[in-house]
Amino acid sequence: FFPPEFQVAPETKAVMKWLRSIPFVLSASLHGGELVVTYPYDYSRHPMEEKMFSPTPDEKVFKMLAKAYADAHPVISDRSELRCGGNFVKRGGIINGAEWYSFTGGMADFNYLHTNCFEITVEVGCEKFPLEEELFTIWHENKGALLNYMEMVHRGIKGIVSDKFGNPIKNARISVRGIQHDVTTGN
Fold it and tell me: What is the C-alpha separation between 38 and 108, in angstroms, rounded?
C-alpha cells in the first residue's frame, strides 16, 4: 500500500492494527482547510495524473454516504458559491478525493482496501486552524450531519453468515454481483 521508501510511523502502524482488529464498517476523518466531503479513492489510478477521477467499485455507495453528510450540513448544502467552499456547490458539496487532489497513504483508501470499513473525509471549514471561539459554531454546523452520517450504518445488507448448524462463520467472503470488492464477516 505504501511506496517502498515510505516509512510508516509507529502510531500509523498502531491505527492500522486497530482497524484490522475491530470490524468497523463506517468511519469519517475530520479535517480543516476547506468545506467539502471527499470519498475514495484519494490516490489517482495513474500516479503521474493529478486531479484524476478515481472511483472505487463502490462509487455509488460512497457518493450516497458523502451526500448524506453534505446534505445535512447547513453550510455545505447552502447553494451560494460566494460562501466558504463555494467552489464545490455545483458538485453538491462532495468530490472524489483523487479528483480534488491525489495523495498516497490516506486512511480512507487503506480502510477500503484492507478492512470492511467505508470512510469519507469531511473538510469541516475553510480555516485549517480555526480559533477557539469558532469551534462551538463548527461543532453545531457538523453535529446534525455527523448524526445523519452515522445513521447510514443501517443501510444495506446485514445479517449473520452461518453454517448448517447455525454457527457463525468467521471471515466468510461476501460478494455482490457487479461490484468487484468483497467484504468478509467479522468474528
Answer: 9
